From TrEMBL:
Belongs to the MIF family. GO terms for molecular function: cytokine activity; dopachrome isomerase activity; phenylpyruvate tautomerase activity. InterPro entries: Macrophage_inhib_fac (IPR001398), Tautomerase/MIF_sf (IPR014347). It catalyses: 3-phenylpyruvate = enol-phenylpyruvate; L-dopachrome = 5,6-dihydroxyindole-2-carboxylate. SUPFAM superfamilies: Tautomerase/MIF. Its main location: secreted. It comes from Vitis rotundifolia. It comes from the Eukaryota. Transmembrane segments: none annotated. The keyword Secreted applies. GO terms for cellular component: extracellular space. Keywords: Cytokine, Isomerase, Secreted. This is L-dopachrome isomerase. It is found in: Secreted.
């Protein structure tokens, strides 16, 4: 299950949040090559962030996936997510950083409650 956890110091209203969640879900699924039904996106707005010595609009992301990641995929994901963040929140792509975790299935816990 690819999971993208985004943090930004920009307050995010419900409409913009919904757009970002939908756009990121589609992008992550397409680029990694997994169904949208496997993708989870978390968006945390209004988080105190200082980046490069200022508190100007910035964002940080962590993307965790069981497989599907690598240098070319990570580059496409970075630029696509940065474009979404820039379009929806007016955050310059130079003020966005994303960290990738390609985990082994044995190191990933999935809890399902029925």
């Amino acid at each position: 299950m690819p999971t993208l956890n985004l943090f930004t110091n920009v307050p995010v209203d419900a409409v913009v949040a919904s757009d970002i969640l939908k756009d990121c879900t589609k992008a992550v699924a397409k680029i990694i090559g997994k169904p949208e039904s496997y993708v989870m996106i978390l968006l945390n707005g209004g988080v105190p962030i200082e980046f490069a010595g200022t508190e100007e609009p910035a964002a940080y992301g962590e993307l965790i996936s069981i497989g599907g990641l690598g240098p070319s995929v990570n580059g496409k994901l970075s630029s696509t997510i940065a474009e979404i963040i820039q379009t929806k929140l007016s955050i310059d792509s130079a003020r966005f950083y994303v960290k990738f975790y390609d985990v082994e299935v044995s190191n990933f816990l999935v809890l399902c409650y029925f």
